[in-house]
Amino acid sequence: MNVQFKKGALELCVLALLDKKDRYGYELVQNISSKIAISEGSVYPLLRRLTKEEYFTTYLQESQEGPSRKYYQLTEKGRSHLYELRDEWQQFTKGVNEIIKEGVGYDKG
């Protein structure tokens, strides 16, 4: 898949996954990589940046399987940003799909 497509979508994916529940970094990586081919190394810098921009807060929680895990929790600022990105994404993909349909169409393979 095109790297630029992934870069644009990764932030939205991370925010969307944190909308319903807090998650730790590796859990986010596993969830996203099960649907989109990404490298683990692409998620952690994004988490640091979004935390710095105050879209998340973090906390440590004991783990039964090893060291404590850093969990990310979406802030209200982060939730607003998520909804804004989601709306932009929906408009963007709708427009792109309309252009594709007008151009090459879906049935021409």
Automatic annotation (TrEMBL):
User: SUPFAM superfamilies, from UniProt?
Assistant: Winged helix' DNA-binding domain
Where does the record place the Transcription regulator PadR N-terminal domain?
14-82
Instruction: Please give the InterPro entries that the UniProt record associates with this protein.
Output: Metal_resp_DNA-bind_regulator (IPR052509), Tscrpt_reg_PadR_N (IPR005149), WH-like_DNA-bd_sf (IPR036388), WH_DNA-bd_sf (IPR036390)
Q: What is this protein called?
A: PadR family transcriptional regulator, regulatory protein PadR
Question: Which source organism does the UniProt entry give?
Answer: Gracilibacillus ureilyticus
